[in-house]
Write a structure and sequence with these properties.
It is built from eight helices and no strands. By secondary structure, it is an all-alpha fold.
């Protein structure tokens, strides 16, 4: 989640509306004129900011993967070596993403295969690094978990947290998601 307090740039506005529209109607179901209208400019005016819809999709999906990884790395640095604090911070950070960037989750699920191969590889590389931050953290809190079991548990928790777009307009309360995530890790450990 961004810490900026200033108004979003035109480029950020375009990306936010493109994500919303792509999530609602699919990448091919949305034209540049509709995206432009959503931000108060002409469709062709978008080309001052992006070469086309493909570039918007790539920036959205690569961008969120970069943001999740950099946020995870920041949480590692801020945890002071406390494994419990780190796992809690990782969970909270992902919950913030899942509740505040729901269109990006839908977009990733539906449109990842529309990215150019290089962009899709980049997204997957970033995601693997993000998963590994979690796996290491989970194994520090639950040392009896094998690496494979910790990785499976991390992916299961991501599935749980990333299900928020399917939970209706308000999603799920953050506290419930936090308890479910912690419960999943404890269950994986046999507790």
């Amino acid at each position: 989640m961004s810490t900026r307090t200033s108004a979003p740039t035109r480029r950020e506005q375009i990306l936010r509306e493109a994500a919303r529209l792509f999530a609602e109607r699919g990448f091919h179901g949305v034209g540049v004129d509709e995206i432009g209208a959503a931000v108060g400019i002409s469709g062709p005016g978008l080309y001052r900011h992006f070469p086309g819809k493909d570039a918007m999709l790539a920036e959205l999906l690569v961008g969120i993967s970069e943001r999740l990884l950099s946020g995870g790395r920041r949480r590692v640095a801020e945890s002071g070596g406390d494994p419990e604090a780190l796992l809690a911070a990782l969970i909270d950070g992902h919950i913030d993403f899942a509740l505040n960037d729901r269109p990006l989750i839908t977009l990733h699920d539906r449109e990842l295969d529309r990215l150019r191969e290089a962009d899709r590889r980049r997204v997957r590389q970033l995601q693997r690094q993000y998963v590994e931050l979690w796996v290491q953290s989970v194994r520090e809190v639950y040392p009896s978990l094998s690496e494979a079991d910790a990785r499976s548990a991390v992916h299961a928790v991501f599935g749980l947290l990333n299900s928020t777009p399917h939970l209706g307009p308000s999603g799920a309360p953050a506290g419930l998601l936090r308890r479910l995530a912690r419960g999943a890790f404890a269950a994986a450990d046999g507790g």
